[in-house]
Design a protein that fits this description.
alpha/beta; Rossmann fold; six-stranded parallel β-sheet
């Protein structure tokens, strides 16, 4: 058998900094996720959802038309079971994050959490009012205590409705009620998903996937929304600030600590501890100038948009940051953390420190984090990193960093469009109705080493911007755009369509809006809901010219996000492989589940979920959907030739002319005297 051709660094990643570090790893013979993905062929049967291993009679691999599992389960049943189990796991992960945030809020309200305070009292009062929690004449801690109790109750609730769904458009709530998919309790839906897929239980693909919607809604309009609300209340609702991204944010003469994971309770406290004079002096005594923090993955987004702490990169940068030799400690909590980090760190001096009671990695140092002693533990972690500074060897930090503006919460978008006295989504709706903005695309999700890192994210983003599509991003996708300069107002506008460019220049925003971490996809749903409430773009999310994309998805959380966005009325496109695809050229009847989640769900919810591998096809389908929705609303057909003759760009050009020439430029030489 001929040896497989070894890929070059530029084939693994679109990011020059990543290419540099991959080349270094290959030169030293060090394994990374990139090379492991290249060397490890995926199982085509499992990837297509055609393998069932839910009981001891299997695994059963269905590779021929008409074949069933030992119990008689068909391809459609097996694919539906595999998909709902993935959605349940993703929902559990994000919702458990929300549960922990609610418990932290409860502890803060009762003065039991060291170092934390309620930073956004206005949001606390506003959120409490949604649920009729009394706010007049009450202290923030009293209100927070009641809100925490309400949120905690949503997890164990057995009957009724998860209260947060009342924040969706009224028409959408009515549809969910008619379909019987409003979650009764967050944990109940996840548990029922697992029960239904046990051997000998639910065997109707449509029925299984009906519950998949309810399970995903428990995440999107339940656990994840709780997580976002509480994070804003405790740590501040994000607003734009200046930040930096990529591996060049690491500093040679500082103690570098990289925080990686998803829970801001840990990372926010490490930020506070790193600025404590005691810790700064401790670092200087060790020979460093101080402590330099940087984030990876969604933790990066959390502290970037609230504290301005630089982001070292997205998911596939976690190994690359250690390869620099400049990281004293990588501090991790939950989700998206590679077990390979420990073995990789053995080639350097880096300590891998696990902190969550739910997560341990063999060979890592475990310092368990507890909100009741948060600041004390954060200082302990930083001292371990500082003590390791003396063990640093040769470093290789790429000279690569991009400036960005993160922090576009839905509250700030409302403010930036209308001002402090008349905050409104009216200007955004009007720009879409007029055609200056063709539509909106939410590009979210992970990196996947089976794709060229960041390429799909940035290529799709750039091509949609050319077509006057406003892009909002979260998670690793947002960090991909950050590394390529799309998150800075003055950068890349020459590649933006004329109508969208006018809007960006007039308001003073980047063409891509950074909206937070992956749980903050709920912010996108909130924006869409407010656009509906503003009027002119239909009476439900499904009417808006908008598309969601996850070009490089890899985690079960992404599938949950995709499902709850579809249930909310959105058209969602995933890149990469499809977990419900048929066995090529062998199984002709294996596309039922794929049709249910696309055509079937669209008939019920107005949204559909599709898996599209080709980037240009993703773009084509996105634009076709946006134009179809514009036509259904009776909006004018998109015409880029109408724009680019007014707005800030033209005024700036006029200001560069001598006064004697401005009249001619403005009025074609016609005098008004």
């Amino acid at each position: 058998m001929p040896r497989k051709k070894e890929l070059q660094p530029e084939e693994y990643s679109a990011d020059p900094a990543a290419q540099e570090m991959i080349a270094l790893a290959m030169e030293r013979g060090i394994s990374t996720a990139f090379t492991r993905a290249s060397n490890l062929a995926p199982c085509n049967i499992g990837a297509a959802g055609l393998c069932c291993k839910l009981c001891g009679m299997g695994p059963c691999r269905l590779t021929k038309d008409g074949l069933t599992g030992i119990c008689g389960a068909t391809i459609d049943t097996i694919q539906a079971r595999n998909l709902i189990r993935a959605i349940a796991a993703g929902s559990a992960a994000h919702s458990d994050h929300g549960r922990d945030m609610a418990f932290t809020l409860k502890a803060v309200a009762n003065d039991e959490a060291e170092g934390y305070v309620i930073r956004d009292v206005a949001k606390l009062r506003r959120v409490a009012a949604y649920y009729d929690i009394p706010i007049d004449g009450r202290s923030p801690k009293e209100i927070a205590n009641d809100l925490a109790d309400l949120y905690i109750a949503q997890f164990g609730q057995q009957n009724g409705e998860v209260v947060l769904v009342k924040r969706a458009p009224e028409k959408r709530q009515k549809l969910w009620k008619e379909q019987g998919v409003i979650p009764r309790g967050i944990d109940r839906e996840v548990v029922e998903a697992l029960h239904r897929t046990h051997i000998g239980d639910d065997q109707d693909p449509n029925h299984i996937l009906h519950h998949a919607i309810r399970t995903a809604l428990a995440d999107g309009w339940g656990g994840s929304l709780i997580a976002t609300d509480v994070s804003d209340i405790l740590f501040g609702t994000p607003a734009p600030m200046l930040g930096e991204a990529n591996l060049g944010v690491l500093k040679k003469d500082y103690v570098n600590v990289v925080v990686h994971g998803h829970e801001p309770t840990l990372s926010e406290m490490i930020v506070a501890a790193s600025q404590d004079p005691e810790i700064i002096e401790y670092a200087k005594a060790a020979g460093a100038k101080g402590v330099n923090l940087a984030g990876i993955c969604c933790t990066a987004n959390e502290i970037l948009m609230r504290q301005g702490i630089p982001a070292a990169g997205n998911f596939l940068h976690q190994e690359l940051s250690i390869l620099t030799g400049a990281v004293e400690a990588m501090v991790v909590d939950v989700q998206c953390i590679m077990q390979a980090l420990v073995q990789l760190a053995e080639n350097f001096h880096t300590k891998i420190i696990t902190t969550s009671p739910k997560v341990r990695i063999k060979g890592a140092t475990h310092i368990e984090f507890n909100e009741h002693r948060a600041l004390t533990i954060a200082k302990e972690i930083l001292k371990v990193a500082i003590d390791n500074y003396k063990n640093r060897g040769e470093t290789h930090i790429p000279d690569a960093r991009e400036t960005l503006v993160p922090g576009f919460s839905h509250e700030y978008i409302n403010y930036m469009l209308g001002g402090s006295y008349r905050g409104s989504f009216r200007p955004l709706n009007d720009a879409i109705m007029a055609g200056r903005i063709r539509g909106v695309a939410a590009i979210v999700g992970c990196n996947n080493p089976r794709s060229k890192q960041d390429y799909l994210h940035t290529y799709v983003t750039e091509e949609l911007l050319k077509q006057d599509v406003l892009v909002v991003e979260t998670g690793c996708s947002a960090l991909a755009s950050a590394k390529f300069g799309f998150l800075l107002a003055e950068a890349g506008l020459e590649k933006v369509g004329p109508g969208l460019r006018e809007v960006c220049e007039t308001i003073g925003i980047p063409p891509v809006l950074h909206m937070g971490s992956c749980v903050d996809n709920t912010r996108i749903l909130t924006v869409l809901t407010q656009m509906v409430e503003e009027g002119g773009l239909g009476d439900d999310i499904s009417d808006i010219p908008a598309v969601g994309l996850a070009p490089e998805w890899m985690s079960e959380k992404a599938l949950s996000i995709g499902a709850y966005c579809v249930a909310s009325g959105a058209y969602v496109i995933f890149g990469g492989s499809a977990p419900v695809s048929g066995w090529p050229d062998k199984v002709e009847d294996s596309d039922l589940v794929a049709r249910i989640i696309s055509e079937g769900w669209e008939k019920i919810y107005g949204g559909r979920l599709e898996f599209v591998a080709d980037a240009d096809e993703m773009i084509r389908r996105t634009l076709d959907h946006i134009d179809k929705k514009r036509a259904a609303l009776g909006l004018p057909e998109y015409d880029p030739e109408k724009w680019g003759r007014s707005g800030d760009a033209r005024m700036l050009a006029l200001e560069s002319l001598p006064i004697s020439k401005r009249r001619e430029a403005l009025y074609g030489g016609v005098s008004l005297n």
